[in-house]
Amino acid sequence: MPSEQSESAANHLSVPEETILDACDDPPSPELGIIEQVWDTDPIPSEETSESAARSVRELSFNDVPEGGEVALGVGSRGIANLPSIVAGVVEAVSDAGYDPFVFPAMGSHGGATGEGQKEMLNELGVTEDAIGCEIRSSMDVVEVGRTPDKDVPVVADANAVGADAIVPINRVKPHTDFGGTVESGLSKMLVIGMGKQRGAKIAHKWAVDWSFRRMIPEITDQLLEALPIVGGVAIVEDQYDDTALVEGVPPSGFLDREAELLETAYDIMPTLPFEELDLVVFDRQGKEISGQGIDTNVIGRRVFSINEPAPENPDIKRIYTRGLTEKTHGNGMGVGSADVIHEDIVAELDAETTLINALTASTIRGVRLPPVVETDRAGVVAALSTIGVVDPETVRMIRAADTMHLNRLYASPALVEEARNRDDLRVVEEPSPVEYDDGEFVAPPLLK
Fold first, then answer.
1. Same-domain status, 192 and 95
2. Do 290 and 433 reside in the same domain of the chain?
3. Is residue 449 assigned to a domain?
């Protein structure tokens, strides 16, 4: 629930709808229809993901792990499909092999950089002790396990994981929002930053300003693999619908090479907006379980908060209006600065402390700068479209999406609906109709998931 202070801040910063309509001559909103992206996918059925995860564990070698030894399973804060089932499958396979598994949060500074907060984030994702069948040990304590040879950078890791007899990170392999490289989000990054907790994440992001993640992560991954009993990882790749497409056990020798191959697959099948040039995109929500930056930079073609990293080449979006935060982000507004206009609900829901801790740890404070705040959806649409030049509701290129993860069905303006009719990768589901507002807020069409 928003605090009285956050609601007060929202009221103070928010510009009334009437003021914006007066300034912009109260233009009409474009009509919106519904289009659907046509994707050919072959996901693993949800009820089979636990067994797929168990098989992936059986692909790894535990020869050097003593009988009955403790196995630390790293789990992050991302909204990964079937995550509780996958983790439960890993736990079951490790237990069946005669070892004692426990889960530790491998999520850097997320959860307010507290052990309790990180355990709560896992609980919100359905990764509870009852659901997965083992203990969760959550602490921000780390141990220094080495230093990089050239730059003498400390290499740290979760103390609970370091004390175990084996370590197995479980993570999705996908394009990263802040940088490009042979490995991006995945097993290696989880070791370097997620398992490093707040201190390790801060060290990595600080040094990345000059060193760059693309060079740092492979080098520190090699050090961690040499210093710690990492027997492998469980890699997950998701399809365009964010369903589980692949679960694979990756041995230590494949953390960089095999992960690079899986990253190429993830790039090929990641969901994107189906148009390269857009006037306005409205996102109903952003959050840390949607993307590390709240809104996926690879989807919006913007990287306003990264240092020394080029933005994606497309799409070209003139304006972005974001309406709210997800419940699971717990007020973390990381990446809110990627929008041009935001709804006052974001400010009311914002946890400034959690957001700033995340931004300081990631050295990306520009990403949490607040854009202009508006009172209503109508004010947001009008403010955005009134700042891009002459706008014709029949030719304006406007999209409304749930978030950057769910892009199968989209609300689209008439010009985009017409374009969709002539494309094999798009299907028109519903013809454009007027957008309805109630006290300035969207009523019809409702949010698409």
1. yes
2. yes
3. no
pLDDT the model gives residue 4: 64
Question: Nearest CA to 159 among 83, 77, 102, 231?
Answer: 102
Q: Determine the structural domain holding residue 400 and report its residue range.
A: 4-39+272-444
User: pTM for this one?
Assistant: 0.76
Regions of the chain where pLDDT drops below 50: 1
C-alpha 197/C-alpha 139 separation (Å) is 9
Please report the pLDDT score of residue 207 as a whole number.
79
pLDDT digits (tens, 9 = 90+) for 91-101: 999 999 999 99
**The residue to which tokens 């005669």 are assigned:** 98
User: Which of 254, 255, 399, 236 has its CA nearest to residue 320?
Assistant: 399
According to DSSP, the residues that pair with 73 across neighbouring strands are 103, 168
Q: Collect contacts of 114-118 with beta carbons under 8 A, ≥24 apart.
A: 114/140, 115/139, 115/140, 117/330, 117/354, 118/77
Q: Measure the CA–CA gap between 375 and 380, rounded to whole angstroms.
A: 8
Domain total in the chain: 2
416 shares a domain with 307: yes
